[in-house]
Amino acid sequence: MKKFLVVAIFFIVAAVNSFALAASGEPKISAESAILVEASTGRIIYEKNANAEHPPASMTKMLTCIIALEKLKPTEEIFMSPTAVFAEDNTLNWSTIDSVSAQDMITAVLLVSENGGAIALAQTVAGSVSEFADMMNDRAKKIGCKNSHFENPNGLPAANHYSTAADMARIAVHCLKNDDFRKIVETRRTSIHWIYPKDKWAELNNTNELLGKYKGANGIKTGWTQAAGGCLAASAKRGELELVAVVMRSTNQDTRFDDATTLLNYGFERVRMIDAINEKRIEKKVFVSGGKQATLYVRPEGDLSFPLMSGEDSKLLKVTYELPKVVDASNGIDEGKILGEAVLRYDGKPVARVPLVARDNVKEGFSLGSFFVSIVAPLFS
Questions:
Q1: What does each C-alpha distance from 334 to 290, 291, 292, 358, 360 come to in angstroms?
Q2: Please, where are the H alpha helices in the chain?
């Protein structure tokens, strides 16, 4: 059965991130900063100056487009303002009378790195580039970015516009949770059609050269400016294992693909996914006070696979439970309500958490058993 991610926050500790390197040693790359992570958990497999601040160039557009996908309807009309039309590198020869759907504009921004299109999306979503930049920075913080600040939606050079390989990986992992985003970034070529003028259209070829060339490649976003150098957020999936590699300040536009290939190869050679939590195999019982029944069973919200690296032992993976012995049903308990967490530990250290949810509904009311639970509940505290 296909596994799926069940919680957004994973606790990856330094003790688990450290691992014995294989005889071949660390990957040799030209990029000044880089990171390789497992996509479902964000677990770090390799890093090089991953927290150094650099211009992220057009990798910025990952964040722009995930916000646009969430805020705009696919058919919403996007108009080109003069600011958008005259943005540097007017790839699609926009004019101020042009308009396309949000879906087509997001596709153009992600596939051919449309700078003006990114501005048009920002203005449509937030009213202005500056207000959209505020949205970007708020989202980055919620994702967990620690050393990033965004001034514009396209990544063109700007003072105080910077990020890190580690933060770009966090953004990439966040974006890949969106199925619509995935479908776009894995597309090698497609066409978009203008709403106005009606007869205008353009063929788009994805700037990500790994698609169709590297086994399992399925995204994500290229970046290049003179200030940033070669940048790339690249993803690939083989079986249940999906990896995300980010390189910043690679020597040039070609070596960024070589660097990402080296990192992805490094990961696929050393990482395997382990079935760690199965919702059908775990069932815990809690007592109920204030309800029409005295007990309730909880289960994990979903399955969880966890990446183990070379030299790590699956026998050191254990599951513990953070769950109250008694839950209050005085306002009722709906099926699916989160009541606790299953904690995955490696060698005693917490590495992932999955919500534990009510398996059934519990109505508020009275039962003899629940009344007795309410009396003895203080003994459990």
A1: 14, 12, 13, 7, 7
A2: 14-17, 60-71, 82-85, 102-112, 115-126, 129-143, 165-175, 179-185, 255-270, 368-376
The tokens for 45 are: 């497999």
Residue 133: partners with Cβ closer than 8 Å, 6 or more residues away: 122, 150, 151, 152, 153
Q: Judge whether 149 and 60 are in contact, CB under 8 Å.
A: no
Tens digit of each residue's pLDDT (9 = 90 or more) over 217-268: 999 999 999 999 999 999 999 999 999 999 999 998 999 999 999 999 999 9
Distances (CA, A) of 373 to 53, 238, 362, 377: 55, 50, 15, 6
State both tokens at 116.
């003006």
Burial class of residue 206, CB neighbours in 10 A (0-12, 13-18, 19+): buried
pLDDT in tens, 85-136: 999 988 899 999 999 999 999 999 999 999 999 999 999 999 999 999 999 9
Which neighbouring-strand residues pair with 230?
224, 250
Helix pair angle (165-175, 129-143), 10° resolution:
90
Per the CB < 8 A criterion, the answer to whether 305 and 3 are in contact is: yes
Residue 163, strand partner residues: 54
d(CA 303, CA 343): 13
Q: Which residues of 132-149 are buried (b: 16+ CB within 10 A; e: fewer)?
A: bbebbbebbeebbbebbb
